[in-house]
Amino acid sequence: MAAMYRPDPANPAARRPRLAVILLVAFFALQLLVFLAFRGAPSPGAPGSAVAHVPESPGRGGDDSGCAGGLVYVYDLPPVFNEDLLSMCDKLAPQYSLCPYLANDGLGFPAKGANLSEFLLPAELVGSWYSSDQFALEHIVHRRLLSHRCRTADPGRATAFFVPFYAGLAVGRHLWAANATDADRDRDCVALLSWLHAQPYYKRSHGWDHFIALGRIRGDFRRSPDGGWGGSFLLMPGLANTTRLVIERDPWDAMDVGIPYPTSFHPRTAAGVRAWQQYALSRPRPTLFAFAGAPRSAIKGDFRALLLEECQAAGEGCGALDCGEGKCIKQNELVMQLFLGARFCLQPRGDSFTRRSLFDCMVAGAVPVLFWRRSAYRQYGWYVPVGNDHEGEWSVFIDRDELRARNVSIRGVLGAIPEAKVQQMRKRVVEMIPNLVYSAAGKEGLGDGMKDAVDVMIDGMLRRVAEQRRSWRL
Ligand SMILES: *[C@@H]1O[C@H](CO)[C@@H](O)[C@H](O)[C@H]1NC(C)=O
Ligand SMILES: *[C@@H]1O[C@H](CO)[C@@H](O)[C@H](O)[C@H]1NC(C)=O
Ligand SMILES: *[C@@H]1O[C@H](CO)[C@@H](O)[C@H](O)[C@H]1NC(C)=O
Ligand SMILES: *[C@@H]1O[C@H](CO)[C@@H](O)[C@H](O)[C@H]1NC(C)=O
């Protein structure tokens, strides 16, 4: 993760006055949202909305039925851009070996802690939990696309083109090396772009129908021109027309699209997902709110330290888990246990604006509480309903400046939400679970028309290619 703290330029601490007005407006907005949620208002940008365009080479018939929106071609890259990186898995990160996490096609080793046994009770969920790491995302998406029913081996029939370069792994191995230069961190990226630019289907569209998936946050690929942290892949002119699906996007870059962090849940069938949804909905939730994370003592006035204080003050109303030393990945069942017992979970920014914990929270069926708009609303528009009318359906936003400046407690704000509303929000979150997880299903997918994160990704990419076609076919 990026070891840097950057102030959020979009959110200056300049919104103090008129608290009463803001609270009043927020209250009525919440009422309206809940009203809309009860009516089941559809959300425009939400996953599952119809793919508007008819491709030139519709992939109808045969194996790829159900892919009327178009087919995806997956490039067969020279192994130096992906497979070779997997084989040096013990050298990719400084703190720990990534090998166990890259096993099982990137899902990681199967989880089998004693605490997990209760999750495994429904027979449909056996083999659905792993110890997954966000850095394996590139591998996870690649494998899933290779076996996807909408994949075609014939580029002539494809609408979208996936470039399975593991850019996060490539830059990751140089991020902490004291002797690594800027050129070291960019070398693989430069080589990839020169390979890609020579491909006939790239030349045809100048890359506008191409996409890539990245398992590290934006800052790791956007080194400032003055030097410093990270590689510069996402700033390279050669990548300008390629869509980047990334776990944390740059809100000012229209070529970045946010995709979910991988959680540890990788169901195989729609029945498995439904069993989990049922379980998550029916769990008793004695705790009002929970927080999994570690305070960053190095950061002055760290917001997370303040949340931990609030949590302690709330006594039994709050549960906290210290994620130091990779505990929340290695023993993810502890996180799930915590969130399964809570109605809300707090999602402050950490080293960066986004956190995997948001997805752990929602998969556990708890309602996320956000403090920065960039933590979700400006990230995952393909996956969660966003826009002012929809965010309140599934999340609570608390202005962190108000929290700091006034005598407002998180317990006070969350405790004041009527139980019926909490139930409604939790139901909405649980409905969204399938779209947020990377399934371990094969060619047939989860089945029953249920879409996982990669299905949503393909739909979104096909819509985007249709929209962008004018950029290269004037
Ligand atoms: C089970 O959870 C408890 C805390 O709830 C923890 O102390 C214990 O180490 C966990 N056991 C395993 C095997 O992970
Ligand atoms: C950096 O140092 C390591 C040993 O600490 C060495 O293996 C590696 O080759 C060096 N890299 C460069 C680019 O000099
Ligand atoms: C991006 O697309 C434009 C045309 O829309 C083209 O002129 C330009 O060369 C392309 N850039 C790259 C890196 O392919
Ligand atoms: C803050 O509110 C609590 C009750 O909600 C009250 O006991 C306390 O005195 C207040 N503190 C200040 C500084 O107003």
From TrEMBL:
Swiss-Prot/TrEMBL keywords: Glycosyltransferase, Golgi apparatus, Signal-anchor, Transferase, Transmembrane
Subcellular location: Golgi apparatus membrane
Protein name, as recorded: Exostosin GT47 domain-containing protein
Gene source species: Oryza brachyantha (malo sina)
An individual GO BP term: xyloglucan biosynthetic process
GO CC annotations on file: Golgi membrane
Pfam families: Exostosin_GT47
Record bears the keyword Transmembrane: yes
UniProt similarity note: Belongs to the glycosyltransferase 47 family.
Keyword RNA-binding tagged: no
Main location: Golgi
Domain (Exostosin GT47) ranges: 67-410
Its membrane topology: Single-pass type II membrane protein
Single GO MF annotation: galactosyltransferase activity
